[in-house]
Amino acid sequence: MEALDAGEVRRWAAACVESLDAHRALIDRINVFPVADGDTGSNLLHTLRAALEALLRAPSADRSTAGAALTVLAKGAVTGARGNSGVIASQLLRGMAEAAWSAPVVDAGVLAAALAQGSRRARAAVSEPAPGTMLTVLAAAARGSGDSLHDVALNAARAAAAALDETPAQLPVLAEAGVVDAGGRGVVVLLDALVAVIAGEPVSTTAARVDGVPRPPDTAVVAAREGGSELYGYEVMYLLEDASAESADRLRRALEDLGDSVSVAGDGDGLWTVHVHCNDIGGAIEAGIDAGRPRRIRVARFADAVPDGPARYVRERAVVAPVRGDDLADLFLAEGVAVLRVDDGLPPTPYELLQVITGTGAAHVTVLPGHPDLTATADEAAARAVAAGQDVVVVPCASPVQALAALAVHDPRRRAGDDVVAMAEAAAATRRGEVVVADADAITWIGPCAQGDVLGFADGEVVLIEPGPATPDAVSRAAVGVVDRMLAAGGELVTALLGASAPDTLADALAEHLRLTRPEADLAVHRAGQGDAVLVLGLE
Hints:
This protein is α/β, with parallel strands linked by helices and 540 residues long. Helix content is 48%, strand content 18%. The protein has helices at 6-29, 40-57, 66-80, 83-100, 108-124, 134-142, 149-170, 172-177, 182-199, 245-258, 281-291, 326-334, 350-359, 372-387, 400-409, 416-428, 472-487, 506-517; strands at residues 234-241, 259-266, 272-278, 293-301, 315-324, 338-342, 362-367, 391-394, 431-437, 442-444, 447-449, 454-458, 461-466, 493-498, 522-527, 535-539. It has a six-stranded mixed beta sheet with strand order 13-12-9-16-14-15, sandwiched between helices. Strand 2 (259-266) and strand 3 (272-278) form a beta hairpin.
């Protein structure tokens, strides 16, 4: 690949989320500078997931070029940044977006400039940077160069990995613990994902690095403090709107007087993410009021953190889903779901799904099969996980739209049993439809069909046959016919998942039909990329 277009930027963001999800527990365990930490991997994952979600939900016009896509990613990361590591990652993306904002594609020269500007932005976001940290690894990556896009990315990843190996020599506390810097390892994960996307290879989802960097000791270092002095008992984070660069500088100085681990980082358009460890919570918030308009204020007390010690599970809850279609998989990833990508015509084995379930490291896992053919596989994988001591429940859902409906009501703050019931009820209340092209002559409940005819399904039954060939008009007629039959019993929200073969006019045809015939019904359209159905419909 010689250049990254907007679609490849999205694929990189999705690869970052997928790889960070796999490496999160490992990164959390090794964060020992300057005090034991259990959040860095989780914070990086949360930040990149927010960036990906912003990109997936942005209008097409706002992400039509690589530079525009990076800009949307950066804004999403700034808005969703969590912890110092998340703030630094958001500023890496911001710097990359600044270097590439006018570029339709990212080639070798643009990527080199983007990494350099990202490193500078990240460095500027930290008040008192120390050697041997995430910033050190980023600076090394920014010095990478090459004649091709792949060479630039590969050299940056190799330079970052080499710098990561040197972090114990720069920070004695790392050498004592026998680990490398956690934030720096996160940087390497992001760059490895970039190399994989450019090379067209699968992203790394194993916790051990393939280049020989040793796995750290299998000990659970769990605490909520990400850095700074133990004299300060609270972490304060918020977004700051309507603040100028001068106001942000004054805020940074004010927060440095109140505590440590200060970062004030912006997106270039007046939105800033603020982070500080302090004792005077009110003072930290008042300083933000003086500088602009704080919102989404989050305060955590370090004394409430889980105490150090070994633990079998690294988190309480997780959701797993086998998914057909790369675009749909990215949508689930952005919602925090651990995804098993399923090839059309090649169903996964129970063991493959079991690996994803156990790989979440969660004590309780909810599985959303999303297809009738995957339910038995999910049940068998869940039974094996339960036999090994993990709490796993399969929520019945025969369509990805039902899985999305269940995910929409998922609330990890509820008791696990109550949450599963709510998800199951949401899935059951969602009617499902499909539009497919017949691959052979057959007899249906409503009569014979020929190969190439367009079939409309509602709740698993054929309800209409549109004679072939499957032209865009024939597909649109079948789609609106299925929607009309489903809406005859009532409904408020129609979800449409466009398959890989869906015509470009299909979304507009559905929207226009609903506007004229059912203006009270909302329509949500997602490019899903599944190959087994031209269109999947859900009605709530």
